[in-house]
Amino acid sequence: MGKTVCAPFAYPDRLASHGAVRERITIGHESSGQPVEFDIAELLATRLLVQGNSGSGKSHLLRRLLEESAAMVQQVVVDPEGDFPSLADEFGHVVIDGAAYSAAEIEALARRIREHRASVVLNLEGLEVEQQIRCAAQFLNALFDAPREHWFPALVVVDEAQMFAPSVAGEIAEDTRRMTLSAMTNLMCRGRKRGLAGIVATQRLAKLAKNVAAEASNFLMGRTFLDIDMVRAADLLGMERRQAERIRELERGHFLALGPAITRRPLAVKIGPVKTGNKARSEGLMAMPDTAPEDMASLLTEGLAEDVAKPAPPPPPPPPAPKVEDVVESLSRADEAPTDEAGESAGANEVAARIDAIIAELARDDHVVAQSTGAQYQSFISRCRRERLVGPMPDMPGFRRKFAEAGAGLDDLDDAVRAQILALGANVDDDLLAPFFVIARAAHAGEVAVDEEALAHAYGTSSPGRIRRLLGHLERQGLIVVREEFGGGRTVMVPGLDLVATD
After folding, report:
1. How many other β-carbons are positioned within 10 Å of the β-carbon of residue 455?
2. Which domains does the chain carry?
3. What pLDDT score does 177 carry?
4. CA distances from 196 to 43, 113, 199 (A)
5. What percent of the chain is modeled with pLDDT above 90?
6. Fewer CB atoms near the end CB (10 Å): N or C, the chain?
7. Greater confidence, 78 or 418?
8. How far apart are CA 315 and CA 317, in angstroms?
């Protein structure tokens, strides 16, 4: 599948008579026929949550909202099911096939989208679930991290949001879950100052992280049947729980609306028609074929042996780019050392030394340190590929430990001291290794103060509260001993080391 780029589109005229851009759209109608309007300017400041079971009309609602506001504001759609590329035909959205780009290209595309104010659909249909989640997380993070001069207003629609902001850990890797949850939290909690208005749609409120759902001030609740989802929906709408049955009785395409951008009281609305969509899909029942039973049996069984004997169809074309997992496997299983330009083989020791050097360089790069572990590992693999390093590669846990060692500067210590600190950290959780090594090195050196800036950098935070909680957690695990002083200072001791560091 190629990289899809649609032709530029001249937006239809949606200007009011006085020359200003319209700020309100009609999303649907009440039962009385009264139009229900949506204030897009208010939506940019207050965000939206859409909930509805499969078949409730949730995607139809999102499509109506996008179509009606297409000429008013930039739109970015994260589409895991391939439901929205048809917006390109009518409204000129650029369709980005997530399977056709590398992680670095996805991030670069996101930066250009913010710079040029392009309305796009990120189509993730061609990826496996975990790849969809990682791709969307990196894309959203890059939108969020755009330079201040590119903080233009944009609607960011995330369909099937329970995939990208799960309330509990599922079958995906823990580092993937953390990365995507962080991206969604940034979008909904901190995106407003950067011009990003999050619109999240989910089938199950109970499966959506509460801190993501809680940041929305506007709600459109469709039909749902499970009690736990109905209760949460009723709470968000400010309804009494005994009124939650009303949500179960909603017809398809009908939603309960509430929020400063729509209405100040819960209001039932029937969503209006749309222009785009999958017109080939049939809805409802179809007449059964009138073929006689014996003829139908013949159609199913005649020539079955010949059909089975046919040669298998040719394999599908290769993907546009290798997956990171495939690269990791090929690197780890390769048994031939690369040759340099003179044709000489690089020794295994040289390869191992270069791998350690690359990890050390990445650990000194502030941009890489701020990334998730998964993104750091991908950066490491990419560097190895560029330098044609082939041989045994550290797996994810091994990489995390080496990265933590390099970040804390343990490579500069004597072998005996380094071995002692590594032994003390043998049972430390991977995500706590870097700050523990910083504390252990400072304690062994007898420094008068633990460098809290270095500790915060290693832990990936700038919050003093998180640092205090980190120290308390390490102390509860028996890894350190913290003594608070009346003057406000702290003495941190590491069992097994003779010296202490005081701050």
Report:
1. 22
2. 24-271 (3.40.50.300), 426-503 (1.10.10)
3. 82
4. 10, 12, 10
5. 13
6. N
7. 78
8. 6
